[in-house]
Amino acid sequence: MTALRELSFEPLKFGRWMIWGCTAIVFIAAPQVFGSGFARALLAQTGIMIIFALSYNMLLGQTGLLSFGHAVYSGLGAYFAIHALALIGKGALVFPVSLLPLVGGAGGLLFGVVFGWLTTKRAGTTFAMISLGLGEMVFAASLMFPGFFGGEAGISGNRTAGGPFLGIAGLTFGPDIQVYYLIAVWTFVCMIAMYALTHTPLGRIANAVRDNPERAEFIGYDAQRVRWIMMMLAGFFAGVSGGLSAINLESVGSGAVHAAVSGGVLLAAFIGGVLFFFGPILGSVVFVFFAFALSEYTPAWHLYLGVFFVALVMFAPGGLSSLLLLNLRVAKFGKFRRLRDPYVGVLGTGAVMAAGIVLLIEMTYHRTLGVGTGPTVKVFGFPFDTMRGESWVFAAALVAAGSVAFEYTRRRFRREWDAIAVEIEDWRRDNPEEDQ
Amino acid sequence: MTVPAPALQLVDVRKRFGRTEIIRGISLSVALGERHAIIGPNGAGKSTLFNLVSGRFHADSGEILLDGRAITRRRPFEINRMGLARSFQITNIFPRLSVFENLRCAVLWSLGHRYSFWRNLNKLADAEARADELLERIGLKRRRNVQAGLLTYAEQRALEIGVTIAGGAQVILLDEPTAGMSRSETARAVALIREVSEGRTLVMVEHDMGVVFGLADRISVVVYGEVIASGRPEDIRADAKVKEAYLGQPAEAA
Question: Tens digits of per-residue pLDDT, B7-61?
């Protein structure tokens, strides 16, 4: 039994190659399991978002730089890549489409060098504000210079340009599945590269600069230089994600450098958690679910994303990755069984409350935006007549009952959780040698 | 035969904040290998003096020389690379990194690893060996993987000294290394300071007179931004001006 219990919670100690191996298998298998065109498009978006969010976290989580303008690097990278693609299409440039993300990366790197030099003199609020200003500036420029940015229509290209990959007939990156695997390979390589970077002298000193930039200067490091180099590298990887996006969509418009993209990556990183390397990966999956999957079903997805984000920041400020690791720690100490019932309680009552809230929101949206389609809206497969009072009373009752029950179970959960945390801390204090 | 340049030399250094002149023309010379204590009442400008020497602030006028080379206008990391390291009165470490990572970060530059992002940190045997050796010396081996922010106060002070000496600087400034410590912790800290300053030049601001007179080869007394006396401990003890200005009333405050 003991051995089994330890085995089942091995993931934390798993050899690194096992984790990467499993990741590779997921990447390979995912489009086979989810075979629809829509699912594959989602998976491709997820891969691109993972690179983008990880590059963002090189700044936020690793160097302590809160940027509101990361879309500048992915967006300009995307423009570089789409221009190159257009040139390949015209025969003016000979370059394999599969390596176009490198062109995007070069674009991101270039602007990382230029803007990084301007922005990294200060960290904290100053950096955040300058990054916001630069983002606005680049977006304004995208409307002012239609020659490069393509104006309203943007710039388009054709990803099958330049002939098949390595001359293999049929491997043109035309079909969705081929693009997916191209993105998957790039995502995998970038993940490994960015992970490796956290285990280099620069990566560690970036953490030191995040923690205490002043002291870093007294151990021989120029804090600004550290931030600047991290900006360049983050710009490069953001550019790679932009380049992949250009290949995936075969078109880049000014939306690519819009503040909404910068805000989105901030949300994705925070949702996953910035304290751990894999946090933004989780965050990207969740974010793509909201922004690309849920948005197909309801115009209220922004609202749901916002509510989810607020709830997460309130209850699990370290994001999903911290939540996961805290639970794994509880499991490692063999105390997870005690959380099982409380979990069933909070998740069950939380689901009732959430269902009521979703119903209210959907009916409200339907009343204001979807009246033309009749008074009835389908939520969770059930029809609700928004003109009848009963529907609203039912929704309100769900919210009320769910909230009361949720608050009750939440407190019970909290007590048990805190008690376990204290037990673990006590054990660690008494056994300092065995820790870690 | 030429006389070697002093390890650290200050020539008429002045610094004002707003209209108040905090450092009012300090000249000081610390010989190679000397343990030099700077004492003086609160607000005398001792910490400001350290901030000027280490590059945290820049002097308004005067000259500061490290091994005969001017460092007056240099930035902290440049001064550090030239061979001067300092500790802080208020513990100033990397709180979210482990004790070991704090020390490893502090040795990286001196080992020439600079801003490298193409080498695996965990395969840099030299950095790991040096960090582990420092861990042993400051007595925190058992706390190797604990987050530095979670250490006890005395442990953080020891780490503060560890981070300061890690780069192998020849001139070390310690700002009140035993402040807030119990008697036994202070004794341990003094032994540590004595050991790590062996063969190097040490400049130390300290309030504990037991520590000062136990460690220092020479003492300078700073009052209102000026050095009013500088000399061997026994001379300082006997100096009438010092007695009046500082050691004044109960002759052995410590």
Answer: 999 999 999 999 999 999 999 999 999 999 999 988 899 999 999 999 999 999 9
Could you tell me if residue B252 is inside a domain?
A: no
Please give the helix or strand (H or E) that residue A92 lies within, else none: none
Contact B115 A225 (CB under 8 A): yes
Question: Do residues B226 and B232 make contact, with C-beta atoms less than 8 angstroms apart?
Answer: no
Give me the residue from B94, B101, B127 closest to A215, CB to CB. B94
- Is A282 within 8 Å of A321 (Cβ atoms)? yes
CA gap B182, A179 in Å, rounded: 66
CB within 8 Å: B115 and A217: no
Rg (CA), chain B: 19
Domain residues for A413?
A: 333-430
Q: Which tokens hold the place of A186?
A: 């790039």
Give the DSSP H/E element, type plus range, for residue A1. Answer: none
Q: Name, in order, each residue with C-beta under 8 angstroms of B212's C-beta and a sequence gap of 6 or more.
A: B37, B39, B204, B206, B219, B233, B254
The long-range contacts involving A423-432, CB below 8 angstroms and separated by at least 24 positions, are A423/A333, A423/A335, A424/A329, A424/A330, A424/A333, A424/A335, A427/A333, A432/B142, A432/B143, A432/B146
The structural domain count of chain B equals 1
Determine which of A194, A215, A222, A434 to mutate to test the interface with B (most B C-beta atoms within 10 Å). A215
ipTM score of complex: 0.94
Cα–Cα distance, B157 to B163 (Å, whole number): 10
A341/A336 Cα distance (integer angstroms): 10
Query: Which of A279, A300, A322 is the C-terminal boundary of a domain?
Result: A322
Please name the member of A196, A200, A223 whose beta carbon is closest to the beta carbon of B116.
A200
Report chain B residues touching chain A, CB-CB < 8 A: 54-56, 75-77, 80-81, 85-86, 88, 92-97, 101-102, 104-106, 108-110, 113-122, 124, 127, 142-143, 145-146, 163, 166-167
- Rounded CA-CA distance A285/A47 in Å is 9
What does the pLDDT look like over B154-198, one tens digit per residue? 999 999 999 999 999 999 999 999 998 999 999 999 999 999 999
Say whether pTM exceeds 0.90: yes
Q: Are residues A251 and A150 in the same domain?
A: yes
